[in-house]
Specification:
Largest interface: A-B, 78 and 79 residues
Order of helices and strands of chain A: EHEHEHEHEHEHHEHEEHEHHEEHEEHEE
Shape of chain A: elongated
Strand order of the largest sheet of chain A: 3-2-1-4-5-11-12
Oligomer: homodimer
Mean pLDDT of chain A: 94
Radius of gyration of chain A: 22 Å
Distance between the termini of chain A: 25 Å
Largest sheet of chain A: 7 strands, mixed
Low-confidence stretches of chain A: 245-252
Number of helices of chain A: 13
Strand content of chain A: 15-25%
Structural class of chain A: alpha/beta
Helix content of chain A: 25-40%
Chain lengths: 377, 377
């Protein structure tokens, strides 16, 4: 029986496990045995494979475990392991770094003439993969962020004389996640100012923007990306994550909300609170977007369908006839369109038209002991 | 027509508005007109009154706005305003400071012989009111915290070699909120270590506890109260909230997670991340506990029933025949029982028996634009 290996890579998302289930259900139809590799590529090298079932579909994070591992010269080792286990299909769920890994494996197999179809499955809360309309994982994170902003808005309104509240959102190089705060504006509970990494951050303009709004309203709600950069293109380095740099050399950011809080306190003497939405942005399964969950499932299904059709070295998309090669996607970043950013601190309605379908619908989680019932390995 | 004035005080909760609706619905039955004072006591002094309706029942925060205002000599002014508007009932929703305020007003009215029934309505995420079994607001915060811990647990499990994750939870003087992280253990996704303010925090013991667990599991999940104190009883002062001290002189805390992250990084050189759950703990209406919402509604109803029976100077309870005077509750703090804390860093099953009923059930929110539909003034 032919074996399909599937792995998860990069950061967790609320819906990444739905892609695993999509792969499993479609593979079954073609009489292919599915095994998951524990901790991505690392699980291949360790021959650490497990079976899984449909029960994980609504569990966030990464059921198989993930890895941030950059291949150097392990291709021959992988080939031998695949031959040994009769692996004819390999699906790797991840972002642009994972696409690069999958692409290299696909190219190696082609070069040595080993018949194994390699398909990437898109996943990233950052929504920064090129070529594809949107990435599974983004919709649920956006739904969590916009809901949190709406609720923080209500919280910050309760006192007559309020404060400046600065909320920090993930997204190292692209502002998609930060922009999602704008959804709350549709319910009249949105932020006053939004700062994305695509536009260089001018501290003194920021202070004067905050001052102006505070004078009018006695409260200001600011949403800012962890990845904002100064006019030289450098990150504001105030990392709150110690010893955390990964194998790809990505610096883990965080701490911008605190830094800007200190700035406002020093420059304007106003009451101010910094809030970092932090890890819950990527694992809040309890407020998963139904559309996002369904999209994640669908790219899992389509990955198997592409492989069965004979494709290798491609990224699964929502429509089978819209092909995207891994080559085109690997290591590239799709930034938030500059034309959707107004005056450096506002987001246009065009973005809302884009994002609203992605946050639509709720997944009804099962609860146990008053909290969602999730699965673990 | 007799008028009932109702106000909200202190910090927001997810369910405080359900108490407003309970008051309204019960008052209607007795042909009493209900008006809400905007921003608590401040709204009385400003004669800033509004009507409201049932539509706010599932909206978090405080629909009428809140205040942290300590009365000095405004009693006569309040009396005249009450007489002017024919106010015969006053209900104040809040914690122990608000009970103190209500008690003083009740006593003043008794002293001058003005017939107005004053009833306090319990509310605090901190769950620290004495005499009452549990406080409306706590169950929803506990549900949010335990859900977040469960999801953070899953997130922190994805990498083979993980990190130390330190989650900071609200609760200045009582550990009830922090303890709620323990609920996630029932689903096998709980924290390794929990630190409450009731037990003095020993930094070197903490470092060695973390070291031991990391050596076993390569990852550690710590939950810590913002209000932990050293052996002299002093807070660890690393406030991330600037210029925020309130009228009651309470220092606003925050920053413990960051401080302890730096400690672990310095002492053990381990990868570590600090997470502050922050404001969403008290306003996450999207994961409201149904039991908590119903409790908040019920104390609103019972407040009116007590007043109709002729009581004044009491706190509304779940059962009408279990009377609690405001005098007994004002400014007092109910701490987490020491007997439920094991070895200074674990929580006993007795607590779980206490808390599970409080987090039970989910409120089905209406959604609009992919996020909950809430009401504002």
């Amino acid at each position: 029986m032919d074996v399909l290996l599937v792995g998860q890579s990069g950061g967790p998302t609320a819906v990444i496990n739905a892609s695993l289930v999509g792969v499993l259900n479609e593979a079954k139809k073609h009489n292919i045995k599915v095994l998951g590799c524990v901790n991505g590529i690392k699980g291949i090298l360790d021959e650490n494979f497990v079976e899984y079932d449909e029960s994980i579909i609504n569990t966030p994070a990464a059921y198989l475990g993930s890895v941030r591992y950059k291949l150097t010269d392990e291709y021959d080792q992988i080939l031998n392991i695949f031959k040994k286990h009769n692996v004819k299909y390999f699906m790797y769920i991840g972002g642009n770094d994972s696409c690069d890994t999958s692409n290299k494996i696909a190219n190696y197999f082609k070069k040595v003439g080993y018949d194994c179809k390699v398909i990437g499955i898109p996943k990233t809360i950052d929504n920064d993969l090129v070529k594809i309309d949107h990435c599974p994982g983004y919709g649920s994170s956006a739904k969590f962020i916009a809901t949190s902003i709406e609720e923080i808005y209500l919280d910050t309104q309760v006192y007559e004389k309020g404060r400046v509240t600065i909320v920090e959102v993930m997204g190292r190089d692209a502002g998609w996640l930060t922009a999602s705060a704008k959804i709350a504006s549709l319910n009249n509970m949105g932020p006053d100012l939004i700062y994305l990494p695509e536009v260089s951050f001018d501290s003194s303009k920021f202070v004067s923007d905050v001052k102006k709004i505070y004078e009018q309203k006695q409260k200001v709600l600011v949403v800012v990306s962890e990845g904002i950069k100064d006019e030289t293109g450098s990150y504001f380095l105030l990392s709150r994550n110690f010893n955390n740099n990964d194998d790809f050399g990505h610096l883990q950011l965080g701490g911008i909300a605190l830094m800007l809080s200190e700035l406002i306190s020093n420059k304007l003497g106003l009451p101010v609170r910094g809030i970092e939405l932090n890890l819950p942005q990527r694992c809040a399964g309890h407020i998963m977007s139904l559309k996002d969950r369904n999209d994640a499932y669908k790219v899992g299904v389509n990955a198997v369908k592409l492989a069965i059709k004979g494709y290798t070295g491609y990224l699964a998309n929502y429509k089978l006839n819209e092909l995207i090669s891994l080559e085109e996607v690997a290591t590239k970043v799709k930034q938030f369109p500059l034309s959707w950013i107004i005056d450096g601190n506002q987001i246009s309605d065009e973005y809302l038209n884009y994002v609203l379908p992605l946050v639509k619908g709720e997944v009804k989680q099962k609860f146990e002991n008053g909290i969602p019932k999730y699965m673990k390995r």
